[in-house]
# Entry
Amino acid sequence: MNLMEYQGKELFRRAGIPVPQSRHAIAPDDVAEFLNGVAGEWVVKAQVLMGGRGKAGKIKFAKGAAEGRSVSEEILATPMPPNRQNPAGEPIKSLLVEEKLPITKEAYCAITIDRSTKKPAIIVSRFGGMDIEEVSEKHPESIAKFFVDTAIGYSPFVGRELAFEAGLDPAFRKQFPAILGALYDVFFRYGAKLVEINPLALTTDGRVYASDAKVELDDDALFRNPEFAEWQQALPLDEDERLAAESGLGIRNFRRFDGTVGTMANGAGLAMATMDAVSFAGGKVANFLDVGGGANAERVRKCYELVVNSTDAKVLFINIFGGITRGDEVARGIVEALKTTTSRRIPLVIRLTGTNEEEGRRILAEAGMTPVETMDEGAERAVEIAGRTTGQASS
Amino acid sequence: MNLMEYQGKELFRRAGIPVPQSRHAIAPDDVAEFLNGVAGEWVVKAQVLMGGRGKAGKIKFAKGAAEGRSVSEEILATPMPPNRQNPAGEPIKSLLVEEKLPITKEAYCAITIDRSTKKPAIIVSRFGGMDIEEVSEKHPESIAKFFVDTAIGYSPFVGRELAFEAGLDPAFRKQFPAILGALYDVFFRYGAKLVEINPLALTTDGRVYASDAKVELDDDALFRNPEFAEWQQALPLDEDERLAAESGLGIRNFRRFDGTVGTMANGAGLAMATMDAVSFAGGKVANFLDVGGGANAERVRKCYELVVNSTDAKVLFINIFGGITRGDEVARGIVEALKTTTSRRIPLVIRLTGTNEEEGRRILAEAGMTPVETMDEGAERAVEIAGRTTGQASS
Amino acid sequence: MSIFLDKNSKIIVQGITGAEGSYHTSRMVKYGTNVVGGVTPGKGGQKTAGGLPVFDTVKAAVDATGATHTCIFVPPPFAADALYEAYDAGVTFAVCITEGVPVHDMLKVVGTTAGMRIIGPNCPGLISPGKALVGIMPGHVFKEGDVGLISRSGTLTYEVVDGLTRAGLGQSTCVGIGGDPIIGTTFVDCLREFQNDPQTKAIVICGEIGGTDEEDAAAYVRDHMPGTPVVAFVGGRNAPPGKSLGHAGAIISGNFGTAQSKIAAFREAGVPVADRPSEIPALLAERLASSV
Amino acid sequence: MSIFLDKNSKIIVQGITGAEGSYHTSRMVKYGTNVVGGVTPGKGGQKTAGGLPVFDTVKAAVDATGATHTCIFVPPPFAADALYEAYDAGVTFAVCITEGVPVHDMLKVVGTTAGMRIIGPNCPGLISPGKALVGIMPGHVFKEGDVGLISRSGTLTYEVVDGLTRAGLGQSTCVGIGGDPIIGTTFVDCLREFQNDPQTKAIVICGEIGGTDEEDAAAYVRDHMPGTPVVAFVGGRNAPPGKSLGHAGAIISGNFGTAQSKIAAFREAGVPVADRPSEIPALLAERLASSV
# Structure
């Protein structure tokens, strides 16, 4: 779960990381009310998960109530424009009004999880306020990294070392180890996969602030902080995630493409391999769908309906290899799903093997369905039914 | 720093350990006010650091305001009687009024620091409400121990394992791992040297409570929790501790005995050896005094006055072996102290060696003092001056 | 021989009386695995339907049975605790089937349980065909032989193994290492073991997009196993661009993690990469033939 | 030879520009210790009055000097951080002079820095006479020779050494292990090292009341060093009854910790116990004579 800037800053504030004075606002009127009679220049920022707000004109300055209302209206007038990762753009549902800091220097710091060393990785650069990937290309020497020993956790020397190695302006140094320690607290206490301050701002009067906040929480750890359930509802799901959630799937278990061969498999690895097989057979896949373990009738029916109703699939290739998922259960699910669904019917190609496969095949046979033997065979059959296309989605 | 029951229970409450409903009270009127119109039987307990409150009649039951007032008056009427560890007894400054629990079973749990394994040690017994040393003698099989890996910390399996091994009543078991975890939180978060619940009480309706609370905080870690400075002021120091603190010494750096040879040395080890030497020379020591490092004139003067004014010392044996303490500084301190003190004069025997000893001896010589060469010699000389006694304090 | 697991390995099951635990315990026993008991707090002294003793704690189970291996079926919030309990009791090999374990839990577990080999979490376990099965794999798909297999995916593993078995290529040990960001045992850890296993003559690596475990494995094969026939498969060439750990993650891991990068790394190491799982047996047979 | 420390050990000082740090650094250098630099964050690039380079971090100091030893003079709240920094930079031997380090800080440090030998905290350091001095000991009291000395107390150590030196009994290495409840290196750790040190022919153990380190040392001498002349002293026979860790602590440590228990343990192990520090040289000479 990715948090909005205002949510991330709330966590920062609790941990003692200095953040600018601010107010979260839904409507231009809220912004106007807040800025009424308030002196100085303020920043109004769209609260979205997508990057590139500045370039998209979604960060604007304002003095006073009238200007606050008008820039808010401008920002809210259009959604965030699409980019490669977010082809649908992103609607803007709220704003953050924040004091404009007199910034003299910008730095970068983040903590994430490194799969290779199996440790939290801290990254610091003396260049902030720009894309860290760009920094790493242009100024690789400005980037310092530290891999935290989880038995020890964060200790202030880490912040000192990184500040020196990244060449942070000396004015940052005194406050930096404590701020990084507080950021580590956020990372650790809330079970985050990423916490990022970009930029970490130094003001003309020598204070240091988190000027932006990016926090990605681990979905598997959300249960430890019940308040996050509410926060989650305030966050936009993309269309595929929403559809997945409505069908009772994990939000990452379903994604649509523009092909005609629907797929459904158990396990992300097999689901990906199923898509690859369809592509190799010359077809274009309509979707990725990992049905997960325990595929009972209800689950199978919902997945069937999800594919039929939200994609252009002309056929659904169900590819189940039973381990924890039992073949007989899946077979019953399929038979039951087709009996009970009210959605339109499309042909099924079923491949079912593994645990209790004989029983599963018997159940399917009783219902008049003949499963294929292999994944390749299933992919071929499905592509035949959907009609061969020329382009391959494969690399 | 040892906490009173009511202070320990406040830390327990914060960590989520169930404690009985209670009110801390200073005067019988407070107790009466609190119990006015309140139903049921309540317990009024003297808040003291000494053990043995029950036997001393300092825990009483009361129903309603009038009875509350009268038992409070009885408890406060006399101090806690002396015992071996507290030959002066202990004044009673406040009371805890607490709901009387319908207890069916009592168990014991504590966490302390084990020097040998260098780990936190958890101790659990199915026998609670009595002295744990007595339990360990009579029912050794009822005591289960666990040494915590500090890199991992507490994990619930520890509580499960201990509950089974100590043979806790099954009714305790479900709640026990969480309560022990919360106790570990108190131990860890506040830097405690000991946290103890005795008894951990099981009530007739199946709930579990910390019925008493014993917490010893690490004096060296108090700076991390500024509120403890206030708490400390609410705690009684014994006479020696109070004198030490008033002289600017650590509260454990001074202790009085009934002899006539005053001692003062730098370092607890040398101070103890100095006392031993006086005993072996046939003298009786008047006090233990570790002057610590950096013995400047002010410090030496205060220590001199402390011994002279609070003990029966007829002579003061100053035994300084310089490492981090520099001999010249100590010598200047002694000379200066004798110049400025307004207390009565007693003879000094000075032994000064180690870092900058030549300079120190020169300074003493200029002031007309001749240091002895060895500790044994100093002890002999001091005992001669004080007059030999027949009894030895030594083993 | 085989790696990690053989006929004599004494195995306990944590969560043995739960629905999944009891179902898969009976399957493991049926396969011939030496399951010596299990743990469910509060049910100590009982027996499972199959007659296995149940203990209150892992320590009690280990004391009574001498178990060295554990297979963990407990809900995600309790998985780390189960692993710590096994570690503390002296278990040296733990398979964690549980899916959805918080990643910070695993970060801490792997950083503080040196000396205990952990497989998973979120994995199907492992099997040394003909000897023992620990986890949730469908045993009948496997066949004893000399191919070692390592996979990040569960169901894909069965797919690949099914192909190997049908092609007459039996397996020494098949390890499902799990697909989570932080796992106890990596491809390289397994390669190191296979290297010292006389039964294993060839290796199949089933990777997928994300992380750099495949790149590390390719480098290890290149540097340390030049003579060993190894074939790889990389799943997810057509997968949706997953939500990554963000830019900071990319800086840490460089430009690795894509299917392209992994395939290139394997090829550079002389490891042929199958386009489809079904191609693996032929590629392997070819490599085996040329290595003789 | 000697233990832990010799002429070639490269030493840095953490907190080298502080009052205590700079004073004792100059004393160490004067004694002949190979101090190669020090650390004070923000003062990197400067030189001490004695011309030693100052670095911002231990890592920078180790990279530039190849130091393996550190001596820590920082205030108590920062001592654990200084130890972690040394550990992370690859330092293998750390002496922590600081008094008043929170006991939980040390609990965690000793539990998470395996591979780094820590002496202290709240200790005077150690000296291999004639070779090197790390800490705050008064070097002129010591004399090179073949007696190893271990002590929990600072000033008492100097007292004992003074007696040895006057009696012509020089020392191989004298270690002040510190008097805190949790210390990095115990009597037994030092005994193990002395056992393997050809220079050390005899050992003096200066213990005191509290804890069970003396009892452990006595058992070690009895079981592993039957031929070595060892003499002990136990301070605090007339000490006030200290405020103990309470009853729970007594349960953990049994009935140990009193002067009586320690003296009995040493005697049972064949280790004579001196009544006064001044008796140690004679007892040692006697043991040395009878062991030849």
Notes: The first helix of chain B runs from residue 5 to 15.
